[in-house]
Amino acid sequence: MNGAKFWVDHLGLEPHPEGGFYRQTYIAGESIAKPHLPHRYTGQRPFSTAIYFLLEYPDFSALHRLKSDEVWHFYIGSSLTLWLISPEGELSSLHLGPDPGQGQSFQGVVPAGYWFAASLDAPETFALVGCTMAPGFDFADFELAQREQLAQQFPQHRNLIQRLTR
């Protein structure tokens, strides 16, 4: 199996602000205008977007939240865990990977407004996934967690927040 560097080079991936590497692979040619979008959006958005996203140990995708649901698709590599904190403070996780016998799935959905992060399940591994959103992604809808502020809001998850923020 090819390693992380092969996929970064082959797919033309670039560093992502939350950690890992990415490249947008699709942006819908049509957009939804502001009057037809929920109030949480500041302007028009494409109908849908898609990216490749790669994590390589020991990196992680730092806690952040989005204004749209995001569907994660597992492609290749080792399993990873998506850590989700609901707006009410409930912690849950999704396990993406190639082995359903280990509770892993090929797809998982992160609901809009949830804080979430991703980490690899084993050292010295990587995972290549894809992410799709509708309405499509815009950096105006991306909020990177502030460690102390989020830990004060959800003190019961302080250890996880410290581990998955920068």
Automatic annotation (TrEMBL):
Entry-linked InterPro entries: Cupin_DUF985, RmlC-like_jellyroll, RmlC_Cupin_sf, YML079W-like
Domain DUF985: 7-145
A UniProt-annotated Pfam family: Cupin_5
CDD domains: cupin_YML079wp
Source organism superkingdom: Bacteria
Transmembrane segments: none
Name of the protein in its database record: DUF985 domain-containing protein
Organism, scientific name: Meiothermus hypogaeus
